[in-house]
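Good day; I would like, with your permission, to put a structural problem before you. What I wish to show you is a protein chain and, alongside it, a tokenised description of its three-dimensional fold. Here, with my thanks, is the record as I have it:
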Amino acid sequence: MTDPVVPVPVVYALNLEYRENSVVVDARTQGYRITITASVKSGYRDANIFRYQQLNAEEALFTGVCSPADLVDYSQNPSPKDGFFRRNLLDLVFASQTQAYEIRDEILEELRILSEEMARMDSTLSDAQTIEVSS
């Protein structure tokens, strides 16, 4: 008798390149910019984990970190229905450094939760099975 095959859990992990700098106009600090570029370390199909909505031809609005459903529903191109799409780059400018750090910390926490949720879903959802029903 053979032992049942135990699936190896998939680890979902991202590499994040984080940068911050001041936005200076006329020798005065006008804001604080943070950029985060994601790349796949393991588990994810791609690194496009930031959700945006295309507002017009030149402008897109960052709307948050993708949910597991967003990773399936949205592509790298704006949806013709609602304009949502995914990118691996986040580039935001804030009025204060404090605000920039608060939002950065929230985004990093959301990314941690996303990776945990993806791993949980992968380990608890079973593979599809075919069941034959006949009379």
